[in-house]
Amino acid sequence: MTGYRSYKGTIATVAKNRIHRRFNTSIPYQKLIMDITEFKCSDGRKLYLSPIMDMYNGENLSHGIGMHPTLDFVMKPLEKALQIVKDSRYRTTIHSDQGWHYQHKQWVTTLKEHKVFQSMSRKGNYLDNSPMENFFGLLKQEMYYDVPLRTYEELKRDIELYIDYYNNKRIKQKLAGMSPVQYRLHTSQQAA
Fold it and tell me: What angle do CA 13, 35, 177 make, to 5 degrees?
């Protein structure tokens, strides 16, 4: 579970949980999941990370990194992810917790404009967001814990490198020993 808490109560409409912990899908871009985590830096600052992951293969489609978890911080990766999934044959659902960002009118309106279903975890139930929590755990275990604290700029660079490694080189047994990107490319070639 992450240290950062974006829940500030119900500030708008809370979307229903459309995923119900059914995280697996055989269709790229059908189910996306996102969350925010924080890191401490050696220069006293905090770094926030907000990735958007495809539940099909665990690929991080886009992410935001910033010093403050503002609305713009989550909107930019959303806009990038929406460009990636716009030509999908199936309607996309994006799942998150009940953080204030995801209840915000701009977030909800953007999803509706792109015909993306919104789904939210139940309040305070991190298991409803477990694929993202698992990713955060791996990332922190493999490149953050047991390493001296880094400055904001150093940590940002290292997270960018890790996400590239995770997407393109880190193999997964459940993806037939391929990385998320290799698996997506392999399965799209087989479908063609």
Answer: 135
